[in-house]
Amino acid sequence: MTVHHQISDGLLAAYAAGSLSEGWSIAVATHLALCPESRARLSRFEACAADMLENLEPDTSGVDDAWAALQSRMRQTSASGTRQPAKPPASVGVLPEPLRSYAGSDADGLKWKALGRGAYQIVLPTADHETTVRLLRIPAGKPVPEHGHGGRELTLVLDGSFLDGDKLFARGDIEETDENLEHQPVATPDRDCICLAVTDAPLRFKSRLMRTLQPLLGI
Ligand code: ZN
Known about the structure:
The protein is α+β, with helices and mostly antiparallel strands.
């Protein structure tokens, strides 16, 4: 069975509340454009939240209890739903909106900047001073240099796929990582993997060469 990697409840809730900064919001909105299951979760989430607010007693439980109750309601309503594979129409292209507007064109019209070893990137400008948003193109069958994270990292697959350990991430799948994880994703051999990566701190590369080149490469 193929496992689809969707965004966490916490991130979805923050997106619904409008509390995410621009970089994270681009990743979540683009994931939602590619993932009908997450769109359905967002709708259920908003419906549950509105329902609970309607019935909330002013002097009842604290925020933590309300959040636990909301998650429980979400699980109950989602358990009965059927899972559908993410298959966007061909007209969507590699970069769906809102990402394509940020990039200025679809993937094949972009001016990719070489990172070495066949990898390329494009940093997308945002007004957000908290995150860095970039498109990455990892050559087929090749690994990303092994690294840890100084903060949160969201990686959304737009084309091709990658393996992180035994987990496969394909188009529309999103990986959430943080300071507690070190990893080395590897593009699958069928074709180059294009991802959107959002970070709020520099990566921590294992290799001394990568650490030396890091300021020059801007990653
Ligand atoms: Zn990473």
